[in-house]
Structure formats: structure tokens, C-alpha cells
Amino acid sequence: MSKLLLISLLMVACLPIDKHEGDTLDIAPFHPESYVCYRTKDPLIIDGNLDEDAWQNTAWTNLFVDIQGDKKPRPKYNTKAKMLWDDEYLYVAAFMEEPHLWASITERDAVIFYDNDFEVFIDPNGDTHGYYEYEVNAFNTVWDLLLAKPYRDGGPAINNWDINGLKSAVKLIGTVNQPDDIDEGWFVEIAFPLKVLHEYCGGVPAKGGNQWRINFSRVQWQLVVEENNYVKRINSETGKHYPEDNWVWSPQGFINMHRPETWGFIQFSDVIAGQGDEAFEFNKDELVKWELYKVYYAQKLYYKTNGAYAQELNQLNNLGLSNLKYVKQLESTTSLFEGIASRLESDYNWHINNEGRTWKTKK
């Protein structure tokens, strides 16, 4: 079996199918986080220190929460991130409170989330297709992937793809793999080349006023000490490792990071960090797109039950979609569908297909 196929199978195995309650959809509320990303006038040195004025003048995000949101308690340890940009890079930094620094993986493009890690997900044009995933552990071992579409829609990770020109560094506040002391945590600093990220920007480049979808995740395993080494804690009833915790910036509602429609928003600003403030401007067309995703998930459930997609919107009423505000049209065959929606004040119609991709057309 090839390494690429093995990793794809492992990734799919770690992604549960979206849960449903009875015959109706269980869809999380739409409350994505948002962040205004200011410019740095000077390139940053990627060393994990965050001591440049630009970083010092940049606000942290809200503290991370459980991936399922309010369904679960607040994380045990604090995690936060911040962002900057210039003409060449999107910069991401994070701090993870961690009393027991641990890492084991040293091979690039191995499955990094088998260690405690920090992860970045970027969808430049927000259509949920063509997005990037980055993972790093406390050794600064990196895994970068390109996904043409989410796993749910049949898109395997392109693991042999690398972010050309990527820069990353970690700074440990403590000692890694030393169980006999208590650590403070670790910093991550990353420079993502915009030239690479623009490959899937779909006409929405990093530019003042433009918005991308982005999210961050922290994977945290339960550890115990055996013979002065950290090992994953075993559940005595199952004989298996306890499942990892997933702590994120913008909650997904499910244990599945590959739902790009629920990620947060980053808004690029031309203001230099520390020299002014700019308000985040929520685009109300995102509410139209979210309603289309309700149709998408309902159609998936309808197909699972009936072996074909619904031909009319009213066929989805018993799935909890009887009060749609923006979706006006549904065009379906047995194996394909397209939903169309818009709001009165917008200049665009929004579309979604059976693979979950969204796009807009002029009215």
C-alpha cells in the first residue's frame, strides 16, 4: 500500500459521518469567528519569538473552544492565535499552554496529529473546495496537504504536495519529553507564501477588504508517564487510547475539521498593525450560503434514505427545512442537484451542488 493511500485511509477513518437525530438534521448554529488581519510594514523573522513590533501590536484571537462548541466543556489548557500579512506572506502565530511538552514524529508529511499538534486550515475563496491544511508538532515537524474537495465529497488529500517557500518555527517554554518538570507551553510561527495560497483563491486574492475562510485546531492527547516517558493513556475498558481532544478557534459543531462552511473569517486590512483599527464587515450573503448548506445536508440524508435526490424543496420539509428564507429553486436528477438562493438586497444568486461547492452568478 502506498504512503499516500495509507494516509488518506487514516484521515477518512478519523472523520465521523455527520450525526443525525432521528429523521431530521442535526445542524450546528452558524456562529463563525472573525478576525481583522492587519499588515506588517517589515517582513517578519520566523523564529517563534513574536518579538517584532507588528506582533506586539496585533491582538490575539479569542481562546479556543471544543470543536463541538457549547456541547462540551471549555478546554483544559488555553490556546490562542494571531495573524498578520504583507505582499508576500500570510503570517500565523499561536501559543498553546502546555505543562507537559511532548513530541515523537520527526518525518515530514507523517500523520502529525498522532502527536499533540497545531493545525491551520485555509479556504481562500470560501467555496469549500480547493483548500489547504497545515499541521506542526513541538519538534516543528510539518505536514502540509492540499484538498481539492472535502473528504465527505470524495476528495482525498494530495499529500505529495508541499507549500513551496513555507517558513515555520516553534519556541518551547520548557523542555520537551521531560516528564520530571512542569512546562509553560509552546509558540508556533508560520509564514504561508501568498503565491501558493493564491492558486485556489478563485478571484479573491489577499487584498485589503477581501475575506477568506480560515480555522485553527489543536489536537491534545491524554498522556501518562511510564518509565520516565510520556505515553498515551489507555482506556482499561476498551484497551485502546482515549480519543484526542480537538480544540479550535471557530467551533465546527461536530468532530470534523473538514467542514469549511463552518470555519471563521479573516478580513485583510491595509492598515499597518498598531496604526489604526478597522471593523470586520460581515457579508450577509454568507447567510444565503449557509441556508444552501442546510439544503446540501438535507439532500445527503434524503439520498441516503431514498436512493435519489429530492426533486422539490417541499420534499425536504420533514427534515426540518420548511422555513427557508433565501433558497428559491432546486434542480435535481437522480444523482445530481443544484440549489439556488439569494437575498433581495444582493446583486448575486448563490448556487450549491451535490458536491457541496458554492459559487455566485450575477442577477
TrEMBL record:
Residue ranges annotated for the Carbohydrate-binding domain, each copy included: 46-145
Any single Pfam family the record assigns to this protein: CBM9_1
PANTHER family hit by this protein: CARBOHYDRATE-BINDING DOMAIN-CONTAINING PROTEIN, SIMILAR TO POLYHYDROXYALKANOATE DEPOLYMERASE
Name this polypeptide is given: Carbohydrate-binding family 9-like protein
